[in-house]
Write a structure and sequence with these properties.
Shape: globular
Largest sheet: 4 strands, mixed
Order of helices and strands: HHHEEHEEHH
Structural class: alpha+beta
Number of strands: 4
Number of domains: 1
Helix content: 40-55%
């Protein structure tokens, strides 16, 4: 993930936290200093409208507005070429860390599927 997006994600997490402590306020100010002014200005405009500034892309869908994101945006996020903005809600997009495979066939690897009428053949083969 792009360094600016990582800082924005940390910033969003801290700003949406209910507990406000002096240490957190200092960290928020440090994170804001690391983010480019145009990116931070867009993020602040979204916050002023009551929206979050970042949204994850899961299964090619923006989690901010639940609208499908063009495949080119997802590819750019995968290659970390550039920062992408959702065309619908305006949130900065990021790909969350993958903990399990997205491909359903990859999840099914190792599982045996039995088709009707062939179960006896499979049992004898095993």
């Amino acid at each position: 993930m792009n360094e600016s997006l990582q800082n924005l994600l940390k910033l969003q997490t801290l700003e949406f936290d209910v507990i406000v402590e002096p240490e957190m306020e200092k960290l928020v100010n440090e994170l804001r200093a690391r983010i480019a002014p145009p990116i931070l200005a867009h993020y602040d405009r979204l916050l002023a409208q009551g929206k979050k500034g970042l949204a994850a892309v899961r299964n090619q869908v923006c989690t901010g507005c639940h609208i499908r994101v063009p495949r080119a945006f997802v590819q750019a996020l995968m290659h970390q070429d550039d920062i992408q903005i959702c065309e619908n809600c305006g949130c900065y997009l990021y790909l969350p860390e993958q903990t399990e495979p997205e491909n359903p066939r990859a999840r099914m690897a190792g599982k045996v599927s039995v088709t009707p009428g062939r179960s006896k053949e499979l049992l004898h083969a095993v």
